[in-house]
Design a protein that fits this description.
Layout: E1 4-10, H1 15-40, H2 48-67, E2 71-78, E3 81-88, E4 92-100, E5 104-109, E6 122-125, E7 134-139, E8 144-149, H3 153-159, H4 165-172
Parallel strand pairs: 6-8
Antiparallel strand pairs: 1-2, 2-3, 3-4, 5-7, 7-8
Length: 175
């Protein structure tokens, strides 16, 4: 029987990212008002229409940059393969990693200190790193990967038959 689970995990913005977004909009509004005033007062004569075009461009640019800060991750589990996609502003998606559950050597709650001295060929961070984050260390034929993610109960249940028993038992307990 096929196993398929999808999970979307939104990323909470940090305080610095919120201030950056606010600053972006304040600067954009000031520039738009300045360009609009220049257009209304005909500061450049017949070329004042360029100020109007610049104001529209600044508004669109601020919207585009601001929306790129809205990030979420999608975990797609299909028959032992876990794919991780990064979704920006619910418009564009990019595959940032894929792992085979049978290649997992360790899994559990993520503690940054425990992995500080470890070396991995690739590190995939697909969530906010906090007390709810998990890790999966994967040793493939060519590379080692550390995945930091937030699996839900459905995803963990779907992964259980595909992850080596000792790894899963240590992560979530036996049975």
């Amino acid at each position: 029987m096929d196993s398929y689970v999808e999970q979307i995990v939104p990323v909470r913005k940090t305080q610095g990212e919120r201030w950056l977004q606010i600053g972006l909009w304040v600067a954009a509004v000031l520039l738009i008002v300045t360009c609009a005033a220049g257009f209304v007062l005909h500061l450049l004569g017949t070329l004042s229409i360029l100020l109007l075009a610049l104001a529209v461009g600044v508004g669109y640019g601020a919207y585009f940059l601001s929306s790129q800060m809205n990030v979420e991750y999608e975990y797609i589990f299909t028959n032992g393969d876990l794919d991780v996609d990064k979704i920006l502003s619910k418009r564009s998606r990019k595959r940032i990693g894929s792992i085979k559950c049978r290649d997992m050597v360790r899994m559990g709650k993520y503690d940054p200190e425990a992995h500080r001295n470890e070396t991995y060929n690739e590190k995939i961070v697909a969530c906010n790193v906090d007390g709810e984050a998990w890790y999966a260390a994967v040793e493939g034929e060519t590379a080692s990967v550390l995945l930091i993610f937030k699996p839900g109960d459905r995803l963990l249940a779907a992964m259980k038959p595909y992850v080596p028993r000792m790894v899963m038992d240590r992560a979530v307990g036996g049975n």
